[in-house]
Amino acid sequence: MPGDMHRNVEKPSHGEEVGSALRIALLGYRSDPRSGGQGVYIRNLSRELTALGHHVTVFSGPPYPDVDPGVVLVQVPSLELYEAPGPFKNRSWAKIRSVTDVREFGLMFSGQFPEPRTFTDRVAARLKGRRDEFDIVHDNQSLGSGLLTLQRSGWPVISTIHHPLTVDLQVAIEHIEDPRWLRSIKRWYSFLPMQMRVASSLPVNLTVSERSRTDIAEQMGVPSARLAVVPVGTDPATFRPTGGERIEGRLFTTASADVPLKGLVFLLEALAKVRTERPDAHLVVLGRGAAYGPVAEAIERFDIADAVRFVTGISDEALVQEYARAQVAVVPSLYEGFGLPVVEAMACGVPVVATTGGALPEVVGPDGEAGLLVPPADAGALAIAIGRVLADPLLGARLGAAGRERVLANFTWRRCAESTVRHYRETIAGSGRGSTV
Question: CB atoms < 10 A from the CB of 323, how many?
């Protein structure tokens, strides 16, 4: 790996070690790949584990994922209290049939977020008496107490923590405009003590970067010995340069949620600044535009409604075409545990401007080599970096080519799956029970 990657990040292997096929229960409380990075992780890791010859069953709450051939999907329904047309509007008393249903309703009614706990409780109930059907349970950041129920019953359990949600809580508090919302925000994140307790009780928690590893240990109290870095990546055969013609002034970014952590408001301000010199500059956002909230207010404040377009629900191939049309891909996040949109853009050969928030420098590399880096929450610095790339096609071409090479060398889903399997085998061996396949 390049010298800027930390030395205790897992080295990519040249193929998984010889061993029996594993039967993996892969858990995700929300796993639709169009709803965020956790869904992208479930989809791609399950595909690559299957390609390595393992048997993967995805247990998912709604919204459910698309799975590839060979991957089994088990839907774990919730009450879906958050779905359109609005919270609680979809409730049906006939759906409440268990203690877990009552708990989910009660926790949400009190302003808390119940899904991590209630999802794992439901999975634990579904897996009761089925120990001989799976070799390991791999949780994707739900970290609900149901995992400890499984562990006490003799199941080997590991988790993936993409980044500590304590960061999300802190950023939300820092950007709150009305102090009356402070208590509500803290109540929403009241699941965090449970996640800290569960993560500290599991033998290993995979995480995606050295920065996440450090922050999880410091902020969640998880012992460093129980944290292992396995970088995620992309599929370079799907996310690739297409040779298509880029559209002058086109910026592209991903913002799956209207939350301060993603830094979209700062990018909108930067776009307004860039347009004073480049009136053709415009932004395409992969995400759902909201009629109200900070992003909508920023678009109105900077008078750039005609220069911002939102797209959502598109296929991977359509996303690749969006990258192909962009002159610059921008990642304005205040913090990222890894930053999947960065590797997707780099794999497509698009020049990247990103912040130094969280692990983004680990992914992008040194400033100026495979991308440009600026401080987070600095619209002026973002505007300058974006303007540099728009004004210098040779710089853009060099950054794009270097980004593609960096991804191929470091960040693919196959390497992620191979490293993950090594941790599966170590965890199973430590539990005293091996695969029976």
Answer: 25
> What is the C-alpha to C-alpha distance for residues 352 and 346, in angstroms, rounded to an integer?
7
Please say whether the beta carbons of 13 and 410 come within 8 A. Answer: no
Indicate the residue type of 205: N
Q: Give the range among 23-27, 82-86, 320-324 with minimum mean pLDDT.
A: 82-86
Residue with tokens 């086109």: 250
The span from the CA of 342 to the CA of 352, in Å, is 7
Tokens 């794999």 — which residue? 347
Residue 81: its pLDDT value, please? 66
Structural domains in the chain? Answer: 23-233+413-431 (3.40.50.2000), 250-410 (3.40.50.2000)
- Nearest partner of 330 among 421, 249, 217, 223, judged by Cα: 249
- pTM, rounded to two decimals: 0.84
- Residue 388 is inside which H or E element, if any? helix 379-391
Per-residue pLDDT of 273-304, as tens digits, reads 999 999 999 999 999 888 888 899 999 999 99
The token duo for 19 is 């061993």
